[in-house]
Amino acid sequence: MQQKPLTPGSLTSGLLSPRLLTPHRFFMVAGALLLCAVAASVTQGSVSISWSEHVQFFAHFFRLDSWLQSVFDIAPANEQANLILSNLRWPRIVLALFVGACLASSGAALQGLFRNPLADPALIGISAGALLGASVVTVVLSVYAFKVGHFYQLLIIVGAFIGALTIAWLVFFLAKKLSSSAKQMILYMLLVGIAVSAFSAAGAGLSKYFLTPNELRQVTLWQLGSLQPLSAPLLTAVVIIVGLVVVGFSRLHHALNILALGAEQARYLGVNIKKLQYQVVILSALGVGLCVAVAGLIGFVGLVAPHCVRLLIGPNHRWLIPGSALVGAIMLVLADFLSRQVLTAEIIPVGIVTAMIGAPWFLWVLLHSRSK
């Protein structure tokens, strides 16, 4: 019998087969859930806004007020509803969508790179590094009383990116020095990540002593994870950068699939592992640094979302990365919805909600892996 030629596709076909759902069916269901989550989040809050008011808002946004009024006899737009939707609800929802997608896709790519389901931007220190970098820049700008609109936000984003990249490579360097095998490196990476995260969190906490009381309150809410609406130019930049990061991760799916077979097999099949590590870490630092700079520290999205997708459609990164981005967007939109529903007079920081959901999930993963 003639044997089939050895190819990356033949090696990974059995390993990467779907489990419970086909990818196309999964994306249909997840897309419907995302629409439902957005619909619930945009209509409910301290002020309920009806669907007719949404139609009026979009008509006003696209300058179709007079046409709709003449053809369908729709009343003029409600100014209060327009202000709430344009300045609060929709910017907040768009930010939740793209921050959730970025954190989840980063988690999926890091788990594939380190071949460990516990790898996560928060667990290996990237999120804490971004928080430290952004906090240091905030203190420096506060000391010099420098607050100039969009440039101020840009400096914080740059600081978060530098902090995330520095901590990520510090964790990687120390884990490589301490370990003698690839399996040990995974363990040391998580342990060093925990230690470095604690140090970064301490540095970010220390920075609060250099802020005024008003700045301290704002920074504390931001560090807990806060989806405060952004200006239109900054929100547009977030959408573009996150889109590029998710596409960049998706383009690495083939190399990540082969890496799942092991480092030696991946090298044999032509995967440049060092280049892949550079690409994943830099993209993660850019995406997570941006998310931390604009939304604060939001944990467990990058851990929970890839697990959910992997259980449903399997570990093929061709579907896992975009699927994780979709589930991460759903998770953060729902977390934002819950944060505005628990207390009528206050908005709970969304990072608290994701931690309350993600921490039990993390414990379940540890117990489940222990029982195997």
Automatic annotation (TrEMBL):
The keyword Transmembrane helix applies. It is a multi-pass membrane protein. The chain crosses the membrane at residues 90-110, 122-145, 151-174, 186-210, 230-249, 280-305, 317-335, 347-367. It is found in: Cell membrane. Pfam families: FecCD. Keywords: Cell membrane, Membrane, Transmembrane, Transmembrane helix, Transport. Belongs to the binding-protein-dependent transport system permease family. FecCD subfamily. This is Iron ABC transporter permease. It comes from Sessilibacter corallicola.
